[in-house]
Amino acid sequence: MGTWRNGTGQLTVEGQDSPVALEIAASYGTRRRGLLGRDGIEGALLITPCNSVHTFRMRFPIDVAYLDEELNVVDVHTLKPGRLPLPRLKARHVLEAEAGAMARWGLRPGGRVTVSVDGAGDGDIDGDAGDAGRDGAT
Prior knowledge:
Elements: E1 7-13, E2 20-25, H1 28-33, E3 44-47, E4 62-67, E5 73-79, E6 93-98, H2 101-105, E7 113-117, E8 124-125
Parallel strand pairs: 2-3
Antiparallel strand pairs: 1-2, 1-7, 3-6, 4-5, 4-6, 7-8
């Protein structure tokens, strides 16, 4: 079994045709940094493993989607800077984007996402694939 690694890819929301640019934060440093110090993000940031976030010192409001191991959406919230929501115990990953983006993408609880990692040897990753293919990300 592989593990997620820092890198880039594409996020596809179930029922949507166009993928979204994705950054993957899997190391301690990149997970800790998240979107701090940025003025925005094109696309989304996947933080893994993660089941809670905060928005202290953030410069802009964000949408946060909590995902389970199979990349099913557990919950979605919009957070203003300076907030500390409760952790989601079923969540294994957190997806962050600029406020309003997830509504535009049609991302809501009960939905599902698929992640394609750039440079992965065997292509798309989804919840049914387990951890296979995640080693290919850089």
